[in-house]
Amino acid sequence: MLIPKNNANLMRTKILIKLVESYLHDKFDNADRIPLDLRPKDGPSSRCCVYKDRAVLKYRCMAGLGHCPEEETDELISLKEYGKQALERTHAAKNKLSVIDIACSACVKSQYVITDVCRGCFAQPCRLNCPKEAISIINGRAHIDPEKCVNCGKCYEVCPYHSVVKIPVPCEEACPVGAITKDEKGKEHIDTEKCISCGKCLASCPFGAIVERSQIIDVLREIKETDHRVVAMLAPAILGQFPGSVNNLVGALKQVGFSDVIEVAVGADITTQKEAAEFIERMEQGQNFMTTSCCPAYFRAAQVHMPEVAPHVSSTKTPMYYTAELVKKEDPGCIAVFVGPCLAKRAEAEYDPNVDYVLTFEELGAILVASGINVDECPEEPFSKISHAQGRQFPVTGGVAGAVASLIGDKVEIRTEKIDGLTKESIKLLKRYAAKGSENNMLEVMCCEGGCVSGPGCIALSKKAARAVDAYAQTGEQLTPETKIG
């Protein structure tokens, strides 16, 4: 998932930084000034007026404090009070993506439109290829009858001048499972029963109307106000996200107040061993193919939207699961915080008793900025456990399948295929494989195109991050089936 730099994403980061600063400076006593500071009265507005901007910013701040704007709509409750409520929570807020109603622009229904580029050509392929005869030629130009059009896109595909354009609804276009749709007023709503928490809608909304409940304040409270040891579990996609080395980053997290920092790549090594063993067993039992299970968004999509694919999904747990298990075995009373690129990890953590909280790289960056910590200036600190080469390559497309294949050897034949990004088309492909079989028997499925380095919680360009991941993987020792971990 390529997330370009835009004002909606930049504002989300600014809000997180402001909230952390407010907590660190005065425990939210002046939190109600945040919307005013971000949209001063004499400054420009991005909506009809600065006051609507501020109202939207308040709702976005509520989400940053771990509240749901859709459920908590009492406008008389101040951000100061919402902040106090966040500090009184004893458990992480339940994972949920939601739409801020007043921020949603109620985009027009997705449709194809013929632009002024149309030359009214003699060939008229748009008209002749339209299955519903929705296109006619009027005054030498093609026109689409919206009553007849079924949005098949045939005209778009055949126009020699590219004069047909598709006007999408960005959030609906991005969602691979149809979980976000319009109500009778044209506003978008997310069906939590269908949602796979991939975050593609959040990243694609140009109006910043889609938000998630953050756990950033919960984690800071555990660090600053309790006696718990708080352990950060860093996903391997962290490479390239911040300046300096990965060991500078470990030092930075300890300055924040984390007691220990462990690589989730260690858990990925365990996943590699177990998934390789499971693959061999399934192939010997005569199964046609097996898919990976590391991506929680794909795992939920298989369970909810592709029941015919679900039996082919590996039952091996994710790297986060095994890393948290190691952490809790060493110190059952500690607070385990997963730090990664993925929103769906919050949903996964709700079913994992060993994971207490989840932060994104964006949220970690906000904590560092608000705390005045420059990563590349921090002393280098080692990880408490060292991972192997295969576990470190998990966050890039092909990394999981490649890691599993490296442990198979000649025990069984392995033919890998990469499903690089969960889309409506790739879901159809997986369903076809389930019905008719696949030429390949190890399918790696990543929800985000390019792998976890393209996740919605990332702050670095995916190609830059992928290069950093590859370089770091090359410094690790090779994992074998006999390697003891933990």
List keywords for this structure.
single chain, 486 residues, alpha/beta, Alpha-Beta Plaits, 4-stranded parallel beta sheet, 3-stranded parallel beta sheet, 19 helices, globular
How would you describe this structure to a colleague?
The chain has 3 domains: 7-106 and 171-214, Alpha-Beta Plaits (2-Layer Sandwich), CATH 3.30.70; 111-167, 2-Layer Sandwich (Alpha-Beta Plaits), CATH 3.30.70.20; 218-473, no CATH class. It is built from 19 helices and 15 strands. The protein has helices spanning 7-26, 34-38, 50-64, 79-88, 125-129, 154-158, 170-174, 200-204, 216-225, 246-256, 264-284, 296-305, 319-330, 344-349, 361-370, 389-392, 399-408, 424-436, 462-473; strands spanning 97-99, 111-114, 135-138, 141-144, 164-167, 180-182, 188-190, 210-212, 230-234, 260-263, 290-291, 335-340, 357-360, 416-420, 442-446. It has a 4-stranded parallel beta sheet with strand order 10-9-12-13, sandwiched between helices. Strands 11-15-14 form a 3-stranded parallel beta sheet. Helix 1 crosses helix 3, helix 11 (264-284) packs across helix 13 (319-330) and helix 11 (264-284) crosses helix 17. The model has no long low-confidence stretch (mean pLDDT 94).
